[in-house]
Amino acid sequence: MKTNLKSWLYANLISRPLLFSWWAGIVFVVLISILPHGSLTAEDSVMGVDKLARAGLFFFLAFIPAAFFTSGKLGLCVATSMAPLGFLLELAQKYFPERHFSAEDIIANNIGTVVGLGLALLIRFFFYTGGHHRFSFKKLVRKKRSGSGEKK
What we know:
The chain is mostly helical.
């Protein structure tokens, strides 16, 4: 039985508006990381608006797939891939004009990713998001078939 890619994506991912906002968030993070003068605060700030914004953006980028993708494994893989994305974007800033590499930005990206992933897993566990229910702890009882050669 063949299924096309579009139906598979909609069956295994999330609603269109949420998926669109997640992709828009990724595009926004990539653009703000490589554009000159894309920083939110001065370069010498240790913990400023820039770091909080980075943590918030990466929180969002890790939270959405981990909490709402139908496939929990796919959501977990996509959410954990946000940490390497933040590292690679920060590393790429060395090669763009008027941008600079900052270890504090990597830490802020990773903090946002870890907190978003942790909260999403809690929400997924307690509220059954993603479309699947938790496993039941009821014992499976096999029904005996009549006529199986057993004496009644």
